[in-house]
Design a protein that fits this description.
The chain is α+β, with helices and mostly antiparallel strands. The strands form 7 sheets. It has a 7-stranded mixed sheet. The chain has a 5-stranded mixed sheet with strand order 3-2-1-5-13, sandwiched between helices. A two-stranded antiparallel sheet has the order 4-7. Helix 3 crosses helix 5 and helix 14 crosses helix 15. It is globular.
Length: 489
């Protein structure tokens, strides 16, 4: 018996098989390309998600044919906030506008002015990366696309449509569109109307552990699976990642370091605090919510840096940083290659290297970029505390969590231990598989959504803690000084 979890990420589609014992039996992925037709824009082709799903599951089939053949249900997860519009022919009308696309800054500002209570209803004020401002941008710049739209989907829901033929979403992804009443876990139609979307285009909202449809014949042939398998509603990647590591009870906290980064705390009730720019959204399980500080730049700035430095192996670059043993880099970096959300709401923010001289080494710059993520986590933690939420003992998940040095920097900057779980890098896809299991009644939330075994607990390093604490004010002041200049650039 196995459960298939599919995560439509930004950099790749990941697929995992989780057995009846709760262990990951096999995993595979297929990379995705992102188009940036203009500065600040970020788009992907919806068809690429479907094709990458075929490829990732095909790789699972090659690696673990018997486990795949025992699949009982499928669950979905994916990047949030993407604007994906389908026409009457069930085909996408244009490329998807992604979460890290900053073109709708003016529209977000206008939406907040027109609907001053939006942050309380939707869990956070409008920002450029959310779906609703992007739709308002389309109404102004591509009105023919919005007029032709018959369905709005979030990225993972495009894969659901291919698998089942059904239009549906879940409360986490629906909330990430800014068009849902978070307390009621139902669409808030005035927002859709304000951005020019026909409310009839909104898909049904189904709780994450609910069967949303069944695998169609054609899709079953694509994946090498039997037709009729149930497909769970699933969850946006933030909530699915939480479910994947068992962060499902009030106060459970984790840091997710992927392309972007999140500091996430599970809530037993809906606790909006729009002023702090903390996201208060519905969890992927019923009667649960979460508070999240969303950082648009996670491990991606280091990957970018490795590319321009001609470093083919990011892990080797990190190893060399560690070997130098410096408690803090002589260089200070701002990591905002994709702008920033919490706590700045600044899509115009960009990356900066400050303090370069003729003796600066590649490892100095790499360490500065790694420290920049730690500093953004401190700022995120401060925003959560302003909202009355405390991430007391966070775990770390995602690709960035594979680097113990990076986690030590984060633990030192936050001045608290960080737990590492075994196999946590595949978190959202594992969470999707767990939702698939719950959807067919195979166990309770407590039985299925257990925390993984602890692989390590990373304590703050006293020397690094003190050095980072002394440097952090410069990091903050550098952003404050440059904020008015980013738009001029």
């Amino acid at each position: 018996m196995a459960f298939l979890g599919i995560d439509v990420g930004t950099s790749a589609v990941k697929a995992v098989l989780v057995g009846g014992d709760g262990q990951v039996h096999a995993e595979a992925e297929c990379p995705l390309a992102t188009s940036r037709p203009r500065p600040g824009w970020s788009e992907q082709a919806p068809d690429a998600w479907v094709e990458a799903t075929r490829t990732a599951v095909g790789r699972l089939r090659a690696a673990a044919p018997d486990a795949l053949a025992s699949t009982r249900a499928i669950g979905l997860s994916g990047q949030m906030h993407g604007a994906v519009l389908f026409g009457a022919d069930d085909r996408p009308l244009r490329p998807a506008i992604l979460w890290n696309d900053g073109r709708a800054e003016a529209e977000a500002r206008d939406l907040n002015a027109a609907m001053p209570d939006l942050g309380r209803i939707a869990g956070v004020p409008a920002m450029a990366g959310f779906t609703a401002p992007k739709l308002l941008w389309l109404s102004r710049h591509e009105p023919e696309v919005l007029a032709a739209a018959r369905h709005l989907l979030l990225p993972k829901d495009v894969v659901r449509l291919h698998l089942t033929g059904e239009y549906a979403t879940d409360p986490c992804d629906a909330g990430g569109s800014l068009m849902m009443d978070e307390a009621a876990r139902a669409w808030h139609l005035p927002v859709a109307e304000a951005v020019g979307l026909d409310p009839a285009a909104l898909p049904p909202i189904l709780e994450g552990p609910t069967v949303s449809g069944r695998l169609r014949e054609a899709a079953a042939r694509d994946l090498g699976l039997p037709p009729g398998l149930p497909v769970a509603a699933g969850a946006g990647d933030a909530a699915a990642g939480a479910i994947g590591i068992g962060a499902v009870e009030d106060g459970d906290a984790f840091i997710s370091i992927g392309t972007s980064c999140q500091l996430f705390v599970t809530d037993a009730a809906y606790r909006p605090n729009p002023a702090a720019l903390v996201h208060a959204f519905a969890h992927g399980l019923p009667e649960r919510w979460f508070s999240m500080a969303a950082l648009l730049n996670g491990a991606s700035p280091l990957a970018w840096l490795a590319g321009i430095l001609g470093e083919p192996d990011v892990g080797d670059l990190i190893r060399r940083v560690g070997e130098r043993g410096l408690p803090v880099s002589p260089v200070t970096a701002l990591p905002y290659l994709a702008g920033e959300r919490t706590p700045h709401d600044d899509p115009a923010a960009r990356g900066v290297l400050f303090g370069l001289d003729s003796g600066t080494a590649a490892t100095d710059i790499a360490q500065a970029v790694m420290e920049a993520l730690a500093f953004t986590l401190v700022d995120a933690d401060a925003a959560l505390r302003e909202a009355g939420v405390v991430a007391k003992a966070p775990a770390a998940v995602g690709g960035g969590a594979r680097s113990r040095l990076w986690i030590e920097m984060a633990a030192s900057a936050l001045d608290r231990p960080i737990t590492l779980y075994g196999g946590a890098a595949a978190g959202p896809a594992v969470g999707a598989a767990r939702l698939a299991r719950l959807a067919i009644g195979e166990g309770t939330v407590a039985e299925v959504c257990r925390k993984p075994s602890v692989a390590d607990v990373v304590e703050p390093d006293p020397a690094r803690r003190d050095a980072l604490a002394a440097r952090h004010p410069l990091f903050r002041d550098l952003y404050a000084a440059l904020r008015p200049l980013f738009r001029r650039a």
